[in-house]
Design goal:
The complex is a heterodimer of chains A (about 230) and B (about 290).
Chain A: E1 22-23, H1 27-51, H2 65-90, H3 99-105, H4 107-111, H5 125-147, H6 159-189, H7 193-198, E2 201-202, H8 204-210, H9 212-219
Antiparallel strand pairs in A: 1-2
Helix pairs in contact in A: 1-2, 2-5, 5-6, 8-9
Chain B: E1 8-11, E2 27-32, H1 41-50, E3 76-84, E4 88-96, H2 105-109, E5 116-119, E6 124-126, H3 136-140, E7 147-148, E8 155-156, H4 162-166, H5 172-176, E9 182-186, H6 187-203, E10 210-212, E11 222-226, H7 244-249, H8 252-276
Parallel strand pairs in B: 2-11
Antiparallel strand pairs in B: 1-5, 2-9, 3-4, 5-6, 7-8, 10-11
């Protein structure tokens, strides 16, 4: 009711963000992450349609199967560019530290609902492993994909090279699927993570629980989100 | 397609049987290299029957013209000069084109349902209206045969004149060959003719003469008589077979493993959630010092 509004105060955006929330991902990071995610969904669906005839019907979502085949490599290059732009901002925070060994040892206990080993970095060892495996998979998929890219590149690649590239492309695609599957599940499992990647912030308790080392540095103003 | 739609033995990227009530005689083309004079009448007949005119190309420094197969050149004579022990310089002429493998690598690799079919008579045919232009048939082919159209991006190759064969005619190249280097008929008859020819050739001193019907692809429906025997002299693979990489990549095993991997990720996530539930520090009662 307009009459009850405090006169003179600005009408604020109705956010649920608590005043003491901790910023975890910047707007740029979030938007890049979701652009990569969208490209991945397109690539996964079109790749699956080409891998197994059972899923060929997915190709009709793209209009025609031929158009899907033409589109797939362009989206792949777009994903690689976006992914590496994103990954270049994160690599330093994903370098393994000695404390990560402890976390990995207790990973399965944590997954089974027991206490998490203390995490020093912005990312835990599982996230770091995911980061580096995705870097490797995107590099591998990009290179092998370019090798088999008709009509631009493939004709100048020897047939043996195209055969090897085709096999590796398929294997890496499935490793990537497993990685992305774990990534998505972990984000849903760890309540608050999805909000961190959609709205950018986490609660103090979330930060203290999952990333106490990072939280301490942020609270002391030593680390900020770019 | 229309005339041969009831006798499809294999269909690319298809999990169930194609219509195959009609069983046809297994056919083959026999190319007797020892009788070929390299006149290229078969090339001309192929262009004429299939109504294809390739662009004017470039001279490659030999009699090869055009210098390679293309989307509009489905057969090409290749000329090789070879120094052969106790035979001296030999001029080898090989009519190149699809061999119509009994176990076709192109068909195995193709991801588009029905873009490649194999009829019960053994002819392997591309159905360009289903082709998506991915290049996998080139990856799968042990003989480097399929070629893509620059404008339409579709794969093309010799059809063994499936349209003519369907109505009881021999392929155009066979009809035109002036030296009977080319024969067409039942596969077994062609093998018999080839073997009889080997006897002739051996009498004439071609001790190593051999029939090329590579078992690695379960035999082909284009069979060669090679007077000097060694396929490598004719630039054909000695042990032709589908690359193990292609077999692995397109195998039912790999496809099933891929799908099982995907399903198991989803199932593992489902049961993990049911067992452990979410980690939610915000919903947990605060501990001392928090």
């Amino acid at each position: 009711m307009a009459t009850e509004m405090h006169p003179g105060t600005q009408h604020e955006f109705a956010t649920t963000r608590p005043p003491d929330a901790v910023q975890r991902y910047s707007t740029g990071e979030r938007l890049t992450h979701w652009a990569v995610a969208l490209a991945y969904v397109v690539l996964f669906l079109s790749g699956l349609a080409l891998f197994h005839p059972f899923f060929y019907w997915i190709s009709l979502w793209f209009g025609t199967p031929t158009f899907m085949r033409i589109l797939h490599p362009f989206i792949g290059v777009a994903l690689a560019i976006l992914f590496f732009a994103y990954a270049a901002r994160l690599w330093r925070e994903n370098l393994f530290s000695p404390a990560d060994r402890q976390w990995l040892r207790r990973m399965f206990a944590y997954m089974n609902g027991r206490e998490e080993a203390r995490v020093e970095g912005k990312y835990n060892a599982g996230q770091k492993a995911m980061y580096w495996s995705m870097v490797a998979m995107v590099v591998g998929l990009l290179v092998t994909g370019i090798f088999i890219w008709r009509p631009y590149i493939a004709p100048s690649i020897p047939l043996l090279g195209r055969r090897i590239a085709s096999v590796i492309h398929a294997i890496f695609a499935f490793i990537m699927f497993v990685g992305i599957g774990i990534h998505i599940y972990a984000a849903v499992w760890t309540r608050g993570s999805m909000r961190a990647m959609t709205q950018g912030w986490v609660t103090r308790r979330w930060a203290r629980y999952h990333h106490p080392g990072w939280y301490d540095r942020v609270a002391r103003g030593r680390e900020t989100v770019r | 397609m229309a005339l041969e739609s009831l006798d499809i033995r294999r269909r690319s990227a298809s999990q169930t049987r194609a219509p195959d009530v009609r069983e046809r005689l297994e056919v083959a083309k026999l190319i007797d290299i020892s009788r070929c004079i390299g006149c290229k009448a078969c090339q001309a007949a192929c262009m004429e029957w299939n109504d294809l005119r390739d662009d004017v190309g470039q001279l490659g420094g030999s009699y090869d013209n055009p210098i390679d197969l293309t989307d509009r050149t489905w057969t090409v004579m290749r000329f090789y000069e070879e120094e052969i022990a106790d035979k001296g310089l030999q001029w080898l002429i090989v009519k190149d084109g699809c061999l119509h493998c009994a176990d076709p690598g192109c068909l195995k690799a193709c991801p588009a349902p029905g873009a490649i079919v194999q009829y019960s008579n053994g002819i392997v045919d591309f159905q360009q209206d289903n082709c998506i232009g991915c290049g996998y048939c080139q990856t799968g082919c042990p003989f480097n045969i399929p070629r893509y159209g620059v404008r339409d991006g579709k794969a093309y190759k010799c059809t063994l004149c499936s349209d003519r064969v369907a109505v009881g005619l021999e392929p155009a190249c066979i009809k035109t060959c002036p030296t009977q280097a080319l024969s067409f008929g039942a596969k077994q008859d062609m093998i018999d003719i080839a073997n009889a020819r080997l006897v002739d050739l051996k009498e004439r001193g071609f001790d190593k003469a051999a029939v090329y019907d590579p078992p690695g692809v379960s035999g082909t429906h284009v069979v060669y008589v090679m007077p000097h025997g060694d396929p490598a002299l004719y630039r054909m693979p000695r042990e032709a077979s589908i690359s193990p990489l292609v077999s692995l990549w397109r195998s039912g095993f790999a496809r099933t493993l891929g799908v099982l991997t995907m399903v198991s990720v989803v199932v593992a996530g489902f049961f993990h959630w049911m067992k452990v539930g979410p980690v939610d520090p915000d919903a947990r009662p605060p501990r001392e010092g928090e």
